[in-house]
Amino acid sequence: MDYESGALDSGIPGLPTTHATAPDASAVVRPGHRSSYAVQHTVTLDDPGYFSDGAPRSESATDRLPDGTFHTGDTHRYEFSVLLKDWQPYRSGDSESGDIIFQGKYSGGQPPAFYLMTKRNAVAFRSPQMNRQTTVVPDFRPYVDQWMNFRVDARWTTDRTGWFEVSVELPGQSAYQLMASYDDVATWQPSSPADHGYLKWGLYRPSESLANGDVPTRTVQHDDIRVLGLS
């Protein structure tokens, strides 16, 4: 999904976009990552126009795209580029809730298999089912309004032959750097039976509110979302 069509579905029929109704909840913007266009998602807390499926979020997804789903036995690489637009950094006294910017989800509205989130001034990879979390960008503040590249390699298994590897390429770097590796783990652990998994990108602010002191409005851009098969 490179958004070079200039449309929210990136020229791919059936690519689901946000259900948030605010006019700026999602948009195609210029420039993209080494290209003309990218997709932008915005969420303003405590405003129903930025609620999608009952939560403060605005996301796109591959749920209805066969080439964008994953199943047990698959070994995949997921790549995406992200830009934190005018991102207000964490300051002492702010809420410590995280903003989710990319997810591997199970079908049926279940908790995610993994996600990447901003937390304080870092980016972390988390697997809720394994209750494991690793910081993969210790400090993103030098890269606000710049494109960061992420790669997640995954082998999806119900036994302990699965793995996750998370790599990052920051501005000024010429190659991906491995930042997290979970080996010999069961990566497919939905809370109830699931037909498939899929990807979501955008902005999800699950535990945040103005009452908690969280930043009222956040905006994120994504580009070059890719799903590759690995042997």
Number of strands: 15
CATH architecture: Sandwich
Average pLDDT, to the nearest integer?
95
Q: What is the domain total for the residues?
A: 1
Order of helices and strands: EEEEEEEEEEEEEEE
Structural notes for this entry:
The chain has 231 residues and is an all-beta fold. The chain has a single domain, classed as Sandwich (Jelly Rolls), CATH 2.60.120.200. The chain has no helices and 15 strands. It has strands at residues 26-29, 38-44, 51-52, 55-61, 69-70, 75-85, 99-106, 114-119, 122-127, 132-137, 147-155, 162-169, 177-185, 197-204, 217-229. The strands form two sheets. Strands 3, 4, 5, 7, 8, 9, 10 and 14 form an eight-stranded antiparallel β-sheet that branches. It has a seven-stranded antiparallel β-sheet with strand order 1-2-15-6-11-12-13, with no helix packed on it. The protein is globular and about 40 Å long. The two termini are 22 Å apart. The model has no long low-confidence stretch (mean pLDDT 95).
Write the layout of secondary structure elements.
Layout: E1 26-29, E2 38-44, E3 51-52, E4 55-61, E5 69-70, E6 75-85, E7 99-106, E8 114-119, E9 122-127, E10 132-137, E11 147-155, E12 162-169, E13 177-185, E14 197-204, E15 217-229
Antiparallel strand pairs: 1-2, 2-15, 3-4, 4-14, 5-14, 6-11, 6-15, 7-8, 7-14, 8-9, 9-10, 11-12, 12-13
Descriptive labels:
mainly beta, eight-stranded antiparallel β-sheet, 231 residues
